[in-house]
Amino acid sequence: MWLTQLLERNRQCFPDRTALADEERAVTWAQFHDRTLELARGLADLGIRRGDRVAVLSKDRVEVLESYFALARLGALFVPLNHSLAVPEVADIMERVGAVAVLGESDLLDRHTGLPASVRIRVAFDKPAFEALGTVAPEVDLPAVADTDPVAVLHTSATTGRAKGVTVDSASFRAIALGWLVMARPTDDIVMVNCCPLYHGSMVVSLTYMAAGATVVLMPGFTPQRALAAVERHRATHMWLVPQMLRFMLQSKGSHGTDLSSLREILYGAAPMPLDVYAEAVRRLGCGFRQVYGMTEVGGPFVTLGPDEHPAPGDVTARIPCGRVVPGMSARAVDGTGRELPRGEIGEVVVRGPGLMQGYWNDPEATEEVFLDGWVRTGDLGFVDEEGRIHLVDRSKDLIIRAGQNVYPSEIERALMTHPAVRDAAVVGTPDEDYGEVPLAYVVAEEGTGAAELLGHVAGLLAPYKRPRRIEFIEQVPRNPAGKIVKKLLRA
């Protein structure tokens, strides 16, 4: 199984090199390999078996990746959870995947009581019981796990706003990593500060560079000061972030007094790079930039634009191209029937290759809907230029991207509608200098209902990044004859 082979290879080639570091500790590749094997045996001793689903609820730390690799070695599926989700959201995901256990930080585990009955095991990373796992476990034989066995359920959101579980195997991770590394041509001395969370598909970027023996530096959460300090402390050569994180870093007073001279490349994705941020970063940092375009359903990052291909800031008139598809994967723009469009003609971007997911967990209808003759539909509108580069021009859905995180208006609308005074609601994205986009809610409500009351109501139902920035009261939500909200009128 590829994740296990990754560890075995790096232990052999770089035993004393730091594999992972967080704000508390660092582990070498030899230590990471040995602890993963020990932890797999300890989890087996607790009763976790091949095919079981195990939730991981934690901020980024070394133990998160130790758990992912240990569960994969055991043949169990790791299910990363967004630690900022509200209690009902976490319970819903765990119930739908049938999680038998949850691993994570004690403060987060204590917050989420009343989990589904299937969850029989709870272990906190920061308690002695986790550290002791496997240290006294018998030398049990672990199962042989194939690359095609499911290894993880990574959650994203569907068009309805309800989280969907993307089922992936090691073959997907391997295909994306090997194709990506051909394009990125990594050196042996990469130290990458990962500013993005390990609970969704962006974690594949970290796995990819780990495959090359890189050191990955983790943070419990992004702040500009924390990211700047990590670069300076670890003499980082690479950073992985979303554009708004880069904006915050450049705006931070500490950026002027921090030694960032070790940086060679900044990887960015999840949202378009604002041209003013790009120009300022090029001027002040003097490093290369690599764009990452990916989607959890196709294995993660499948298109990249390298430093040599990035235009000079003054040459950019619209958006920077996403780049070319990685070897092993294919992408093209198609019309509504699935017919490939000529170069330069805008259509929906679809993807095919060995990185594709096995499907949505226990959701064959949604799986069938996202596939088109063996290609996965991204929902993004774009085109392929004469040099084979993919350009994105718009999103075909009403998705709001807030600082790189996906926010679905329908989910906010449903939360608002649970308030007894709310008659109707519609949510659209509105531009924001700091976050790119934020949700704006239009609400029809009973007289006397206040915005603060509604914001407080949804605070108990939605993660902070999903909550509307502002609520505007209107007399009627515009709808077409079919009953669908005419959101272009609201945006206007």
SSE blueprint:
Layout: H1 2-13, E1 18-21, E2 26-28, H2 29-46, E3 53-57, H3 62-74, E4 77-81, H4 87-97, E5 101-104, H5 106-111, E6 121-124, H6 128-132, E7 150-157, E8 163-169, H7 170-184, E9 191-194, H8 203-211, E10 215-218, H9 224-234, E11 238-241, H10 243-251, E12 265-269, H11 275-285, E13 288-295, E14 300-305, E15 324-325, E16 330-334, E17 347-352, E18 359-360, H12 364-370, E19 371-372, E20 375-384, E21 390-395, E22 400-402, E23 405-407, H13 409-417, E24 422-432, E25 436-445, H14 451-459, E26 470-473, H15 487-491
Parallel strand pairs: 1-10, 3-4, 3-5, 5-6, 9-10, 9-11, 11-12, 12-13, 25-26
Antiparallel strand pairs: 1-2, 7-8, 8-18, 13-14, 14-15, 16-17, 17-20, 19-20, 20-21, 22-23, 24-25
Helix pairs in contact: 1-2, 2-3, 7-8, 9-10
Describe the structure.
- Helices cover 30% and strands 27% of the residues.
- With 492 residues, the chain is of the alpha/beta class.
- The protein folds into two domains: 2-291, Rossmann fold (3-Layer(aba) Sandwich); 400-491, GMP Synthetase, Chain A, domain 3, CATH 3.30.300.
- It is globular, with a radius of gyration of 23 Å.
